[in-house]
Amino acid sequence: MSLQFVAQSTSGNCIMSFKNKVVIVTGASAGIGAATAVLFSKEGANVVIVGRNEARLKNVASQCAAVGSEPLLVKADVANDEDARRIINDTIQKFGKLDVLVNNAGVLESGTILDGTILESFDKTIGINLRAPVHTTMLATPHLVKTKGNIVNVSSVLGQLHVTPLANAYSTSKAGLDHFTRGCAKELASSGVRVNAVNPGPVETNMLESFGESTGIHDVKTALGRVSQPEEMADLILYVASEKAKGITGSVFVADNGIRLA
Asked: What Pfam families does this protein's entry cite (predicted)?
């Protein structure tokens, strides 16, 4: 019996293909979001790319079309409640369903208690990095329940450690996103919806560059002596969203090149 089960489970039931699946990727104009949108397109998905920079979104859209179908481009600010509703409504109007939500949009605002900038950085960071994913998740959930879909939240290893007081708001927002992921997974499990998070370490993106500029930390030390490329995170996100991970929910996947060990 067990041998027969193994044979069946490796014969093609667990595949990475997202053919005819509908996937929303927020923060898709650059970095991890852009790489993720392109990879989902390559795997056959109908992708909805969301971002504030229309020119960059159009560039990503052309990359998606080159390897798959033309994505739906939604210029929107995820922290704006009307925009958040429009993201979901436009997706359902265009494709009639939703299978995967990737909450990737994020911002890093520096600020500290002693210099009096902490509240300003918290208000903007929490609004985009934590409140927006909560809101988008709430709006998307009825549609994900219908398809037995799943959610992938793009968090950060900085939700598990502090490297500088300047990133206090960012680290707090990502720790909150990880915990929301677990709570959301527990609530939605009975509805057949999986919810997981990925925790990238340093990734070669504009955000990493801005982090160095705002904090003065330009040399990031990792145990492996490297930083990741956005495509590596896209690979992980696709795995977590795929049927290969159908038994995984409420988990946080760390891909940090061993920065916690360095």
From this structure: adh_short_C2
